[in-house]
Amino acid sequence: MRVITVPHGSTAQHEVAERRLAARTLLAAPLLTSHRQPDELALVRRHSAALRSTFAKLLGYHLIVETSFARLVKTPPSPDSPLRPVQRGDSPPFTPQTYALFSLACAALLTPGTGEWLLISSLVEQIRADAASAGVELRDTPSENRRLVQAVGLLIDWGVLTETDGSLSAWSERREEGVLQIHRPLLPHVLPRPLRNVASLSDLAAQLPSGASEPRRSLRRRLVENPLVKREELPEEERDVLSRERSELTRLLEEHFGLMLEVRAEGALAYDTEGTLSDVAYPGPGTVRQAALLLTDALTDLGRPAAGCHVPGARADVPGLLTPWDTVRGELEALSSRYAKAWAGAYIADPARLQKEVVALLESMALARSLPEGLVLHPAAARYRPEPHAQPARAPRQQGGTPSAAAPASEPLFTESLLREAL
User: Fold this and answer.
1) Best label site of 27, 151, 291, 421, fewest CB within 10 Å?
2) What is the mean pLDDT of the chain?
3) What does the alpha-carbon distance between residue 211 and residue 22 come to, in Å, rounded to a whole number?
């Protein structure tokens, strides 16, 4: 159980610190239950009125607080946000089919006549029946059964279901029966919006709110939720807010969410000095994170981009350094050889897997973009270079050991360009 602590100080300061901690808790875990997070829920309930107002006014989010749960209903991410699918532990990320099965599991639990407890096999049978009625293909194969277990497992992770006798893993591995208890008051609030009238992705996209009429709110949402906000992807109204109201934006993000605003020529980010809000640690330990950090450095040394370097795009040129895939592959192979004794053997033996996961990590952080001809590295990757001062030429390759996890670098990736703050 995590212990909630707040800084000491005057009563007013204490209240502000508590509200900020409660808001951060909800941003990191938008669904809290009394069974799984009793201290966090108690904190949110204590400041529920102020939190409802803060989230509605600043971000356009709806906060539901009840005796046994709290649910922060966020608006869908903007189409240009990096893809961040749900991932449970070491399991593969959710696929579109897994999301469909998750929705069908929620619908199955809401079926009239379903009590407070049900057998795992009964839930699976209902999901299969509903999938057939909805035209969702669900074959009885190991891979699709794993997706089904992932979908139901997420409901357990969130506290919507509780394993009371037996377990989902035992059912998955040996078909041992188990009993699940339903947190019925929470169940209707799991999905942020009804899906009864959604027949296609275009129907779902039509429900996305437009930020044109509220550029301040939509910009705040981008900064709070995205690892990087690229200037070239901002609507004109939001770029104007970022330039003209930066001081007020900085104050609001720090006061209510404990985030520090950093604005550069190519974009902006709101970073968390405590490192507790993001679900992805970067830089950080592990082969993929270390490889991504060093690949960024290696490609920059190779390309030596000048200020204002851009890559031609279909709609408009974007800031970045384009490196052909052959070069990316070669640099990763060289890094793998250099750190073969320190990095995970599975990645050393499978270079294609390492490249795929490194690129996926950089894309999830909005630091890179894949094109058919190569990888585009965004200038914001400068914050994470392993050395604060890049050498004009490539340094000699080191032997053995592991690279240190770097702090945000003080020098920019594209020399002058990133240093110029747009006022």
Assistant:
1) 421
2) 83
3) 26
pLDDT of 79: 74
C-alpha closest to that of 160 among 108, 121, 113, 204:
108
pLDDT in tens, 325-370: 999 999 999 999 999 999 999 999 999 999 999 999 999 888 999 9
**pLDDT of 273-293, one tens digit each?**
888 887 777 888 899 999 999
Instruction: Tell me how crowded residue 25 is: count the other CB atoms within 10 A of its CB.
Output: 24
pLDDT at position 1 over 50:
no
Burial of 190 (0-12, 13-18, 19+ CB in 10 A): buried
Backbone angles phi and psi of 318, in degrees to 5: -125, 145
Q: How far is CA 9 from CA 6, 18, 379, in A?
A: 9, 11, 41
Residue 196: which residues within 8 A CB-CB, separation 6 or more?
Answer: none
Residues β-bridged to residue 126: none
**Which ranges of 245-399 does DSSP label H, i.e. alpha helix?**
246-257, 287-303, 325-338, 345-349, 351-364
Element (H, E) at 222: helix 215-225
| Contact criterion met (CB below 8 Å) for 383 and 362 | no
- Tokens representing 212? 């044109």
Query: Per-residue pLDDT averaged across 297-307, rounded?
Result: 81
Q: Are 181 and 117 in contact (CB under 8 A)?
A: yes
Residue 104 tokens read as: 């069908």
Report the predicted TM-score, pTM, of the whole model to 2 decimal places: 0.81
Question: What pLDDT score was predicted for residue 331?
Answer: 96
Continuous H helices in 118-167: 120-134, 142-157
* Alpha-carbon distance values, 164 to 69, 106, 141, 219, 323 (Å): 19, 19, 27, 44, 53
The number of beta carbons lying within 10 Å of the beta carbon of residue 314 is: 5
d(CA 75, CA 55): 11
Q: Is the distance from CB of 166 to CB of 177 less than 8 angstroms? A: yes
Q: What is the pLDDT of residues 128-165, one digit of tens each?
A: 998 998 888 888 888 888 999 999 999 999 999 999 99
State the Cα angle at 332 between 329 and 335, rounded to 5°.
Answer: 150
Here the tokens at position 97 are 């089919």
Q: Of the candidates 56, 45, 1, 53, which has an alpha carbon nearest to the alpha carbon of residue 22?
A: 45
